[in-house]
Design goal:
Structural class: alpha/beta
Helix content: 40-55%
CATH topology of the largest domain: Rossmann fold
CATH superfamily of the largest domain: P-loop containing nucleotide triphosphate hydrolases
Strand content: 5-15%
Oligomer: single chain
Order of helices and strands: EHEHEHEHHHHHHHEHHHHEH
Number of helices: 15
Radius of gyration: 20 Å
CATH class of the largest domain: Alpha Beta
CATH architecture of the largest domain: 3-Layer(aba) Sandwich
Number of domains: 2
Largest sheet: 6 strands, parallel
Shape: globular
Number of strands: 6
Strand order of the largest sheet: 3-2-4-1-5-6
């Protein structure tokens, strides 16, 4: 049986450092479930773990996909499942770490078989304005419109595409699948959802964004080249490109990225709190070492073996 332990939570909580120390402690390997860190390049902008953190334990699916390549949850599920099975085959436990809820759910619950993209339909939808797309989604699929980010053009287009190709709202297609269609893709897992008090989390986010700029994120974006539609959703990419063209000031750019990241963290918190199978752990009340010990003790029964 494929085995994994999931450490999930919003951005800037300290998941990477925590998971690396836990993996080193119990002899596990880490599989990233971050929709942006999977891309090669933009290390500062996507807040990839430091080299010292990566050296603590084997890490997988960080910086493995070119920025020019499209990614989605099904592609991620296939490659991540293969990686987890390989880790298990070597007698190791996989610790899946990340904050991309849809990627994580693709592993724990599988994915609905959705219609393939139609190039002509996609072209016609891409020709519409964001306001027009929102209006159509609210009309055709109000349930999905309430759940997705209505500023995310790509997701709105995909939801409309599913509606027009299947004849059913995307929410109905996904909800109506049932466990029989998903069972072969599911990974039985135990989980912990880590978070911090809001004030502390927002302070960590603001400091991390400032640190990105101090360390050269502007030059990193300048040299990025062509990015795919999915990679273009990386928080801060649009804002820094606006800065590079002189359309906004440095202070405006930093402030906007901080605000977008805080909003993203809020959405992540909301999503994970609705997942009743995740055991919550507030890191604001624990030291780093206490959190490592607390989670390690809960993982050990899952690991099967331990390297002494």
């Amino acid at each position: 049986m494929t085995r994994a332990f999931f450490i999930v939570g919003p951005t800037a909580t300290g998941k990477s450092e925590l998971a690396a120390d836990i993996a080193r402690e119990i002899g596990a390997e880490i599989v990233s479930a971050d929709a942006f860190q999977i891309y090669r390049g933009l290390d500062l902008l996507t807040a990839k773990p430091e080299a010292s953190t990566l050296a603590k334990a084997p890490h997988h699916l960080i910086g493995t996909v070119p920025l020019s390549e499209e990614m989605n949850a099904e592609k991620y599920r296939r490659v991540a499942r293969s990686v987890i099975e390989n880790i298990n085959s070597r007698g190791k436990l996989a610790i899946v770490v990340g904050g991309s809820g849809f990627y994580i759910k693709a592993l724990t619950h599988g994915l609905a078989p959705l219609p393939e993209s139609d190039p002509k339909l996609r072209e016609s939808l891409n020709a519409l304005s964001l306001t027009e797309l929102r209006s159509q989604l609210c009309e055709f699929d109000p349930d999905t419109a309430e759940k997705i980010d209505l500023k995310n053009r790509r997701r709105i287009v995909r939801a409309l595409e599913i509606r027009l190709l299947s004849g059913k709202p995307a929410s109905e297609v996904v909800a109506g699948l049932g466990e029989r269609g998903r069972a072969g893709s599911m990974i039985p897992a135990t989980n912990v959802f880590i978070f911090r008090d809001r004030e502390e989390l927002y302070q960590r986010i603001n400091q991390r964004v400032e640190s990105m700029f101090e360390r050269g994120v502007i030059e990193e974006v300048r040299d990025a080249g062509v990015v795919s539609a999915t990679a273009s959703q990386i928080i801060g990419l649009r804002e820094i490109r606006q800065l590079l063209t002189g359309k906004e000031s440095l202070a405006q750019c930093i402030s906007e990225i901080q605000q977008r990241t805080r909003r993203y963290a809020k959405r992540q918190l909301t999503w994970f709190r609705r997942q009743t199978n995740f055991l919550p752990l507030n890191l604001s009340f624990l030291t780093h070492n206490e959190a490592v010990k607390w989670i390690s003790l809960r993982i050990l029964p899952e690991s099967g073996t331990r390297d002494d």
